[in-house]
# Entry
Amino acid sequence: MSTTLHWLTLAAYLLGTGVYLGFVIWQRRGLHAMGRAVLWAGLGLHTCALAAAWIETGALPALTLRQSLDLFSWALMAATLVVNLRLEIMVLGALSAPLCALLLMAAAVLPLPAAPPPALLKSTWIIIHVLSLLAGYGLLALTCLGGGLYLVQDGLIRKKRLGAVFKRLPSLTRLDSLGQQALVAGFCLLTVGLITGAVYAQITLGSYWRWHPKEVWSLVTWLCYAALLHTRLVQGWRGRRGAWLGVAAFAALMFTFVGVGLLYSGYHSFEALPTLTGPLP
# Structure
């Protein structure tokens, strides 16, 4: 059941991508409304697919790289649609929808978990840890996308190329507001994720911190976003500087999310998580 729902979700995201690209080209509000409805339907299907997978295995489907990419796609789409209820940056769907579809396609070619999830990873602490982190990742991805759009539009203004592309982009003020609001919410969720992970490590390992590369890079990423938040709220670094910092911090986050889990072994690696059966090493 979950597999069928995932394919239907991918179809909805691809259809939403096409509709939003039509909106970007022809600038008809009806296409925006249609694209938004399709993406909400896709998010509903995606939620049902994840819930079905959770029920089938008894654990949150986030143990492997395949499942993590799937859950990240869901988090990004949810963040996009919820944030748009407040800011209505209509062109945002044209960026998020294809990215979510690509994440689902990348997940589809990766292998399924070979073994049932261990009892260690069915803890409420793990559920809060993973969901808060992935929700934070989705919001911080919007900070990156908003920053990228800001830099594109700012570059067009500086070069005085105020053509058709410029007319299709939201104002710099709205993009900067997107970056800040998504950053604050995403940073709070990232902090909750790190704290709950440390608490669960203390419960199972007797230690909050073990200097695993994933833990070190998670702290580095958190510090990058803490510095970005400080420069925005205290020092007033908005505009181009804030946009560049948002893009750079997201690159560090993606390395922490995907790169560290693939490059380093240990209980935080994607290979080890599905096979844990006893006390964590």
In short: DSSP finds nine helices and no strands in the chain. Confidence is low (pLDDT under 50) at residues 274-281. Residues 1-109 form one domain.
